[in-house]
Design brief:
single chain; 477 residues; alpha/beta; nicotinate phosphoribosyltransferase; TIM Barrel; seven-stranded antiparallel beta sheet
């Protein structure tokens, strides 16, 4: 495993050096990871990347080469560098279950740790959280747009680097994509790999028919032919039909599919479907690719495109329409005399005012099992919505609000205690299934639409709300 201890912003080290010098290194603090808005104007996001975050925290250490590099910067106290030589994370990590449907401004990950420990993990934690959550969310939108048709990740070559390709494929799978063309992701994560040929394979041989013939003879049980190298309707599909009749059927095999990667995909797919059906190839699938996303896929289906599956590349693996997730890592409390005192960040932009203190996040369900809101509470508050429970909508605090005949579920769980993993992580298949279960059974359809989705409520208990308001009054004096 690579040692990524130095994957951090320089200010994490300069601040930690200051904490050490001022003898604050053992003060315990609380940091929250949260985000402020869903990408693409969507109604929800998907939490991904927890496994990699936990692996990193457990392995975090500084090598002699790291220490020497920091010494060469000429600004760090020698005793601080000696401290880093023996460093290991000694805090706790609480988080939502990976794959949880999440919403803005709620603490998805909470770190409770000595000050330096909490500070040093910021960059890596946000890197994994932001990237994988963004791609998983985008992938789910694309899978939803496909309306039950297959979707494969074709994006590695357009990803921003090799890690983005690898962990992007993992995130795509969490979001619901069926397979990946990235072999390393298949090997490392157990994702089904898929792929056919590139145009170069067709162009290498002296004619298209010969290229198709070579391929079909090598892969008679999985022949999917790329038919747009020269002319889809005049050359590609007629040659594919010849291969089905002259090469595969004498072997007792069927042509599995054809792929179209350019041109008017809606028009061509309809023409191709007619041509295949006329030759008795009704079971031959049509695969469409070429700069697809949820919007182009929705448009293709609306136009009546005849398509069985999609290969989606750069617009999914880079989340091209909105490529920044924007999660942040903010201090929420500092331990003083054994009590965690809340801290709050105030801004002229109301949406940037943080939710302070140690807290719990609950998901509130109605009697039908639908998630009607999330609820912020003080850490040790007792929450019982089975009869009647008063809460405050922070956007309309003057209204009297009550949950009636509801149940609640605590969303955070402790995964690391004193630097050691204390809870088992879900497998990738379990994470993927959990995403689907929530969206099918718990999350309102109105939150899942692309246009003007319903806003999921983030409410507060009265005690938590009044604590926040009191803190705002104090810091505003």
């Amino acid at each position: 495993m690579r040692n990524l201890a130095m994957l951090m912003d320089f200010y994490e080290l300069t601040m930690s050096n200051g904490y050490f010098y001022n003898e604050d290194k053992d003060t315990r603090v609380v940091f929250d990871v949260f985000f402020r808005k869903n990408p693409d104007g969507g109604g929800f996001s998907i939490f991904a990347g927890l496994e990699q975050i936990i692996d990193y925290i457990q392995e975090l250490h500084f090598t002699s080469e790291d220490i020497q590099y920091l010494r060469e910067q000429g600004i760090f106290h020698k005793d601080f560098l000696t401290y880093l030589e023996q460093f290991s994370f000694k805090g706790d990590l609480y988080a939502f279950r990976e794959g949880t449907i999440m919403y803005p401004n709620e603490p998805v990950i909470t770190i409770v740790a000595p000050l330096i420990d909490a500070q040093l993990i910021e960059t890596y934690l946000l890197t994994q959280f932001n990237h994988q959550s963004l791609i998983a969310t985008k992938a789910r939108r694309i899978k939803c747009a496909a309306q039950g048709r297959g979707v494969s990740d074709f994006g590695a070559r357009r990803a921003h680097n090799v890690d983005a390709a690898l962990y992007g494929a993992r995130a795509c799978y969490i979001g619901g994509v069926d397979s990946t063309a990235t072999v390393l992701a298949g090997q490392k994560f157990g994702i089904q790999v898929s792929g056919t040929m590139a145009h170069s394979f067709v162009m290498y041989y002296k004619d298209e028919y010969l290229a198709f013939q070579k391929y079909a003879q090598m892969y008679p049980d999985a022949t999917v032919l790329l038919v747009d190298t020269y002319d889809v309707l005049k050359s590609g599909v007629p040659n594919a039909i010849r291969i089905a009749k002259e090469v595969l059927e004498p072997m007792g095999k069927r042509l599995k599919g054809v792929r179209i990667d350019s041109g008017d995909l809606a028009y061509l797919s309809k023409k191709v479907r007619v041509m295949l059906d006329q030759e008795g190839l009704q079971d031959c699938n049509i695969v469409l690719s070429n700069s697809l996303d949820e919007y182009t896929i929705s448009s293709l289906i609306l136009q009546g495109a005849k398509v069985d599956s999609f290969g989606v590349g750069e617009r999914m693996i880079t989340a091209k329409s909105e490529p920044v997730f924007g999660a942040v890592y903010k201090i929420a409390a500092v331990e003083e005399d054994g009590i965690f005192e809340p801290r709050i960040k105030v801004s002229e932009n109301v949406e940037k005012i943080t939710n302070p203190g140690r807290k719990e996040v609950y998901r509130v369900y109605n009697k039908d099992g639908k998630a009607i809101a999330d609820l912020l509470a003080l850490k040790d508050e007792k929450i019982d919505c089975s009869t009647s429970f008063s809460y405050i909508d922070p956007k309309e605090p003057w209204r009297v609000r009550k949950f009636e005949d509801c149940t609640v579920k605590k969303l955070q769980k402790k995964y690391i205690e004193n630097g050691k993993k204390v809870a088992e992580l879900d497998s990738l298949e379990e994470i993927r299934a959990y995403v689907s279960k929530q969206l099918e059974e718990e999350i309102w359809e109105e939150e899942q639409r692309f246009e003007n989705p319903h806003t999921h409520y983030l409410d507060m208990t009265p005690d938590y709300y009044h604590m926040k308001m009191k803190l705002l009054e104090e810091v505003s004096k």
